[in-house]
Amino acid sequence: MYATPTLPSDHSFIRHWSTLTLVICFLSLSACDLKKKDVKCHDFFKPGDRGGFEYPSKGIALFKENGTQWYRCAAGQKYLHNKCKGESLKVTWDDAVSYAQEFSEKTGSTWRLPSKSEMKSIMESQCHAPTLNTNVFPSAEVSNYWTASRGFHQDQFKCAVFTYNGNLSCRQTRKASLPFLLVKD
Questions:
Q1: Cα 49-41-75 angle, rounded to 5 deg
Q2: How confident is the model over 119-168, as pLDDT tens digits?
Q3: Mapping DSSP to helix (H, G, I), strand (E, B) and coil, where does residue 168 land?
Q4: What confidence score (pLDDT) does residue 6 get?
Q5: Which end of the chain is less packed: N or C, by CB atoms within 10 Å?
Q6: 160 - beta bridge partners?
Q7: 56 to each of 60, 65, 71, 72, 140, how far by Cα in Å?
Q8: Span 69-77, mean pLDDT?
Q9: pLDDT for 33
Q10: Mean pLDDT score of the chain
Q11: Strands, E, within 20-143: which ranges?
């Protein structure tokens, strides 16, 4: 036969259980203050706030922190009257690289895909959806955007930044159809 467990007479079990319950409640309630505020970048940036960018010419944004010039619209779109017109291209990584080369030939300037560090440098940590300054990139969509950086298995995967929250993934299959931005030095 099995013995039936009994509580200790000094009620130490109840005291420890009460203490554990209080600690769990305290930690649960204190974690509420750690939650990131749910602010969309469309609401975060006041009209005209360029957030570290200058506009040296029409459709170009110069990021002063690293000197990189960004085309303000996704590839396939045209910057006109402070807006991006048309649909963004969503193509494979190889097609994005080819597009940048062709765009360079047509414009006479060397355009390319941004590196993962360049792409991460323009992500805004205080807001999301997209994590870009929407005054600078007026038609930025929430999506994974190609970078020039290679993935873990260079022949199969490439790096992309998810503009909802700015997370980087270097396990994006190069055959996925994604939008992309163009930069020049």
A1: 85
A2: 999 999 999 999 999 999 999 999 999 999 988 777 899 999 999 999 99
A3: strand
A4: 53
A5: N
A6: 146, 169
A7: 6, 15, 11, 12, 20
A8: 98
A9: 41
A10: 86
A11: 53-57, 60-63, 68-71, 78-80, 83-85
Calpha distance 182→96 (Å, rounded): 9
Hey, what are 182's tokens?
């163009």
Instruction: Find where tokens 């010419």 sit.
Output: 57
Residues 6+ apart with CB under 8 A from 69: 56, 60, 61, 62, 63, 183, 184, 185
Neighbours of 45 (CB within 10 A): 19
CB 138 within 8 A of CB 84: yes
Predicted confidence (pLDDT) at residue 9 exceeds the cutoff of 70: no
pLDDT of amino acid 44:
95
